[in-house]
Amino acid sequence: MEEPGFRVLLTDVGDGRKAELVRAVRAVTGLSLWHSKVLLDRLPAAVTEPDWFEAAGEVAGRLEDAGARVTVLCDWCDRAIPRGPGPVDPGPCEGPWPDGACRASC
Fold it and tell me: Among 15, 26, 72, 97, which is least packed, fewest CB within 10 Å?
């Protein structure tokens, strides 16, 4: 069975300095300086394409360390995955996948 992807949504620049956030966005996306600034000016913005849960968590951590506020979203059901242990919602995934397959429910 295919695993769901998880994407990182940058929701707010938070308390971080904009220069640090631009560097963090450049580091995780590979975008140019100008495109990174544009992305920060157009929030909320998806920073990553759907990726493994662990990879999305690493990206979210790097951006949070720079002061940004981010949300990790399940690509199957669009639920926000909390940072840290525990499921976001004990209910089943709303997608067409079997119970327990969605990492948001596990």
Answer: 15
pLDDT at 102 over 70: no
Digit-coded pLDDT (tens) for 63-92: 999 999 999 888 877 778 777 665 555 566
Using a CB cutoff of 8 Å and minimum separation of 24, what contacts does 11-16 make? Answer: 11/43, 11/44, 11/68, 11/69, 11/70, 11/71, 12/43, 12/44, 12/68, 12/69, 13/40, 13/43, 13/67, 13/68, 13/69, 14/67, 14/68, 14/69, 15/67, 16/66, 16/67, 16/68
The model's pTM is 0.79
Q: Which of 106, 104, 105, 96 is nearest to 1 (CA)?
A: 96
